[in-house]
Amino acid sequence: MNPERFHNSSSGRVIRVGQGEAAYWAFIPNPLPPTLPADWELIRTLSAADRALSELAGLGRTMPNPHLLIGPFVRREAVLSSRIEGTRANITDLYAYEAGQLPLPGMEVPPPESDVREVLNYVNALEYGLERLQALPVSLRLIRELHERLMRGVRGEHATPGEFRRTQNWIGTPGCTLREATFVPPPPEDMHEALGALEKYLHREDAYPPLLRLGLVHYQFEAVHPFVDGNGRIGRLLLSLLLVQWGLLPLPLLYLSAYFNRHRQAYYDLLLGVSERGAWREWLLFFLRGVAEQAEDALTRAKRLQDLQQEWHQRLTQTRVSALTLRLVDSLFEQPILTIPQAQHLLDVTYPSAQRNVERLVQAGILQPIGEASYGKTYVATDILGLIYEEETA
Q1: CA of 49: how far to CAs of 12, 57, 61, 238, 295, in Å?
Q2: pTM for the complete prediction?
Q3: Which domains are assigned to the chain?
Q4: What is the pLDDT of residues 266-322, one digit of tens each?
Q5: S-S: 223 plus which of 1, 29, 168, 296, CB 3.0-4.6 Å?
C-alpha cells in the first residue's frame, strides 16, 4: 500500500507495521462521525432518498400480507450480494436448491453447488439477524453470529467463522502481496479498537440523519475489514438490519446490492476515495442515490408482485376453486418451485389432493411443469421468478 495516497486524508491515518523487509503500511480509520460541511446537493439527494424510502415504508405498513414478499426480496438480495463476490448462482438456482431440485430438468450447466450454498447461507444469516433483532441490537456480538452463519460449510469456512481476524488481511488485485495491496486495513490490535468505537457509534445518536449515518457505518465497517473473509457480504447485510432497527422500514424491503453490483467499480473506488482523500461527500452522494433508486425499484416490484397475487386469486375464484388451491397460490410467493410431495406437505393433505390442486394451477397457467418426466415432476411459477429477478425497474 502506497502511504502517499493517504497522506492528506481526513478520514484516518496510515501507520507502519513491523520492521525491515517485513514492514508494511496499514490504514486506521478515525472514529465516526466525520465533520461534513453544509452542502445543498447532499441535502437535496438526502431528501430524495428519504421520500423514496418513506413511500416504500408506507407500502410495507399497508399491505395486507407483506410477509409473502419478504422471502423473494431477501433471496434477490442474497443472489446479488453474493454475485459481487464472484458466485454464479441466480434466483432460479437458489429456489431449485431449496426445493431439492437442483439441477432443474433441462438446465444445461448448473452452477457449482458451493455457489448456491453460499447464497443460501446469506439468506439464512439475514433471516437469523432479523429475528435476532427482537432481542439483540446490531452489535459486535450479532455481527460475529451473522458471520458464523454466512461462512458455515462453504469456501472460506477455514477463515474462522464467527471470529474476528487475528492476522493481517489486505485488498488488491488477485495474487498481490501485502506490500503490493491497494488497501491494508488496521492490524488486529488497532482493528479491535476501531470496532469498539464503531459499536459505540451504532448505539448513540448524533446530529446526522439516519440515512447519512447508514452510509458512514457502511464505509467504516468495510475500512476496518474485521474478518478474514466475508466482509463485503456482512457489510451489505448490516445495511438491511439497520434500516429495520432504526425504524426507517417496518420490514426488510430495501436492499442495495443490486445498485452496488450495477456500479461495482464506482462502489469500490468511492469507498477507497474516503480512505485516501476523505472524500465523504462523493461516497455519500453515491450511497443516497442508491437508496432512492432501490427504494423506487422495490416499490414497483412489490406492487407488481401484489398485483400478480390478486390477479391469480380473481382468476381462480371465477372457477370456484377450494380454499386449499388459494393457499397453494399464496405459498408460491415463498416457494415458487415445488413438487407434488412438497405441495402435499404445504397443504397437509393426501398426495392425490395435492396433485389435484397443482393440476388446477397448471390449467390456470400459474404453474408450468419442467422436463419430460411423467412422474416426480417439478413445477415452476415463472411469473414470480421473472418479477423477482428481472432487470431494475427504477
Answers
A1: 28, 12, 18, 18, 8
A2: 0.92
A3: 31-301 (1.10.3290.10), 317-389 (1.10.10.10)
A4: 999 999 999 999 999 999 999 999 999 999 999 999 999 999 999 999 999 988 889
A5: 29
